[in-house]
User: What shape does this take?
Amino acid sequence: DTAVSQTPKYLVTQMGNDKSIKCEQNLGHDTMYWYKQDSKKFLKIMFSYNNKELIINETVPNRFSPKSPDKAHLNLHINSLELGDSAVYFCASSPLAGVFSGNTIYFGEGSWLTVV
Amino acid sequence: GEDVEQSLFLSVREGDSSVINCTYTDSSSTYLYWYKQEPGAGLQLLTYIFSNMDMKQDQRLTVLLNKKDKHLSLRIADTQTGDSAIYFCAESQAGTALIFGKGTTLSVSS
Assistant: This one.
């Protein structure tokens, strides 16, 4: 069973469209994250939710809106897609908020978004 | 600029040892991590070290931490072709999120 699953794995879409990436974790974790990996492979935190509440909101265009209907799901909606949004988006989860021993962060397989 | 620095590429022969280096800037980081990313896959946690430790060994992996110089290294003994991947160093800042380096691409030739 996949611990952190995200869909779709690949998405090609035109500029200006609105798209969503869904993420689900079946680990019973309280905290979920979205990371963005750009074309140079650099990984950066975008958002973090703890038990459905937003706790980290890095400087990200407000075209990106995370939504957490319950603590097992954290979806990422992107409005008015731009070429620069092309990247790999990783969902992740951890038992608790904060990074400390035993609080391992588990990553999904990634969603490859290409905006044309 | 990024807070965590790594060299971008490393090429070794199968059976040799690989050493991937990383420097970080936040002296308050309490945990430092190594993640592995295989082509087209997600991130897999390899190991982590607490900042009051100098060394941690886990099978073929050895992590060395020089807190004074803010230098972290990952040594892979007897490197295999299956070890070819991108290796990310990461530090915990403010205990809330991981800050990643740009990753080191390890290429293992047979």
In short: Chain B is about 0% helix and 55% strand. The radius of gyration of chain B is 13 Å.
